[in-house]
Design a protein that fits this description.
Blueprint (H helix, E strand, L loop, with lengths): L3 H4 L7 H9 L5 E4 L3 H11 L6 H8 L2 E4 L4 E4 L10 H5 L13 E7 L4 E5 L10 E4 L6 E3 L4 H10 L2 H4 L8 H5 L6 E6 L14 E6 H14 L3
Antiparallel strand pairs: 1-2, 2-3, 3-4, 4-5, 5-6, 6-7, 8-9
Helix pairs in contact: 3-4
C-alpha cells in the first residue's frame, strides 16, 4: 500500500477543482467538516491520491450532502454522515484494505438507492458509475465517471431523475435524516403495490440494514 505521504499531493490538489464545482452548483451542497486524523486514515485505506476528486473529497471533507441531504457522497465521516468511504465498503466490495475492490460504494440516497463505481465487478466499463435502484433492484449503468457523477449531483435536475420517488413532504423529513439512515418502504418500491410513493408506508432504518436487504432480495428474485 502507498504511504499517506505518497497519497497527499499538495501541489496538485483536486480539492480546488471540486470546490469550484460546488461553488457553481445549481443544487444545494453542504460540505461536512473533516477530522484531520480520520481524513488521513480514510485516505490511506482508500489508496487514492488527493489529486483525484475522490481523494480530495475523502481527505478534505467528512462527506457531501446534496439537495437537503437526499444524496450523501461519502468522505472521511462526520457527525451528520457517520461513515467513511473505505470503512463502509469493507466486507462489501473487498475483504481487507489494500485489495483492489470489484466496485466502490461512493454515495447513496435517502430512498435506499446506492451509487457504485465499477472496479470490474459490474461489467466491462471500469471507472463508470452504476445506480443500485430500490425500485427494481437492478444495477443501472449511468455511463458516467466519478467526476461526471459529481457534476450530476451538483447540477442535474434531481426532481426529474427522482420523479416518481419523492413524496409530498420529503424535503422537511430528509433534511433531518441522519446520514447513516435511510427510508425503508412497504410495500417494496419494486412491487406493483409500491409504485405510488405517496401511498406506501415508510420508516427510518440503518443504511447497513437496507443494503443487506436489497442484496438478499435481489438474490431471492434470481437476479
Amino acid at each position: 500500500m502507498k504511504t499517506i505521504n505518497e497519497l497527499i499531493i499538495e501541489k496538485d490538489s483536486g480539492w480546488k477543482l471540486v470546490k469550484e464545482w460546488i461553488g457553481a452548483a445549481k443544487n444545494k451542497v453542504e460540505i461536512l467538516p473533516a477530522d484531520p486524523q480520520k481524513a488521513k486514515d480514510a485516505l490511506y485505506k482508500t489508496q487514492v491520491t488527493t489529486s483525484s476528486p475522490m481523494g480530495a473529497i475523502v481527505y478534505n471533507t467528512g462527506g457531501l450532502l446534496v439537495d437537503n441531504g437526499w444524496i450523501r457522497i461519502l468522505g472521511s465521516g462526520s457527525a451528520k454522515l457517520n461513515r467513511t468511504l473505505p470503512d463502509w465498503n469493507k466486507g462489501k466490495s473487498f475483504k481487507e484494505f489494500g485489495e483492489t475492490p470489484s466496485f466502490l460504494l461512493i454515495a447513496d440516497d435517502a430512498l435506499g438507492g446506492f451509487y457504485l463505481l465499477n472496479g470490474g465487478g459490474l461489467g466491462q466499463d471500469v471507472g463508470k458509475v452504476y445506480y443500485f435502484s430500490p425500485d427494481n433492484l437492478e444495477y443501472e449503468a449511468l455511463d458516467i465517471s466519478y467526476s461526471e457523477f459529481l457534476e450530476f449531483c451538483f447540477n442535474n435536475d434531481l426532481d426529474k431523475f427522482y420523479a416518481e420517488s419523492r413524496w409530498k413532504d420529503w424535503k422537511k423529513e430528509v433534511s433531518v435524516l441522519e446520514g447513516d439512515k435511510v427510508y425503508n418502504f412497504y410495500p417494496f418500491l419494486w412491487t406493483a403495490e409500491g409504485t405510488d410513493i405517496n401511498k406506501v408506508s415508510r420508516k427510518v432504518i440503518p443504511v447497513e440494514e437496507q443494503y443487506s436487504l436489497n442484496i438478499d432480495l435481489r438474490k431471492q428474485l434470481g437476479h
